[in-house]
Write a structure and sequence with these properties.
single chain, alpha+beta, Multidrug-efflux Transporter Regulator, Chain: A, Domain 2, 3-stranded antiparallel β-sheet, two-stranded antiparallel ribbon, 5 strands, AlpA family phage regulatory protein, AlpA
Length: 84
């Protein structure tokens, strides 16, 4: 994990929707992932099944997490013409 003073501004249709400090990476759960990328749980799991989204990692017996940086990278790739 690298400490840095940079930050990321996430936009949707040209409007800022989040300002995320990039000082540290952290794990996020499904509810936060859904809010951040704007997709339903069903769509996310379907994309994982099809190899279109990172499967994340287990943080408990039934709990799954994703790194915030992974979700942000996925969002950034959508800006550059990637299809959902």
């Amino acid at each position: 994990m690298t400490q840095t003073n940079q930050s990321i501004n996430v936009t949707y249709r040209g409007e800022p929707i989040a300002h995320i400090p990039q000082a540290t990476d952290r794990a996020i759960r499904m509810e936060e992932l859904k809010r951040l990328i704007g997709l339903s749980k069903t769509t996310i799991y379907e994309m994982i099944k099809n190899g279109e989204f990172d499967p994340g990692f287990l943080i408990g017996k039934r709990a799954r997490g994703w790194y915030l940086s992974t979700a942000i990278s996925w969002l950034e790739s959508r800006k550059q013409g990637g299809a959902v």
